[in-house]
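Take a sample.
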Amino acid sequence: MSDVTIYVDADACPVKDEVLKVSYRHQLVVYIVSNQWMRMDVGPLVQKIVVPDGPDLADDWIADNITAKSIAITADILLAKRCLDAGAIVIGPTGKAFSPDNIGVAVAMRDLNAHLRETGESKGYNPSFTSNDKSRFLQALESAIQMKLKN
């Protein structure tokens, strides 16, 4: 068994099942972190972590436990930055990789979009999750695992 671990920001994550399938193949420990119990079939390498209900408590748990040998799965840009700061690889559910080179722009866009929603200038838009997104995610996850296994 490898010391590479995967952390999933699970409350709104559409790729939990895909993460589990890939992690079983590589025999990697996975932490499914949420603020509510999730009914999922999991194996012995999967830890379901349920944090108390509250803002950012799941994010805090992940950020406090993640290491440079880890991979984080999250769409939360601020959590992505915290995980990158710890040396982890971070992938969004659509396969977008966050990196030290692109996280600053992502945080700025997040803040701008939040401001536009608050002022009513934007209603926000969340595109639907597609099979192409799932395919990109699986490729990005496999690449991230291979990279961490080599280091």
Remarks:
- Residues 52 and 108 are 29 Å apart (CA to CA).
- The domain at 5-99+127-150 is CATH 3.40.50.720 (Rossmann fold).
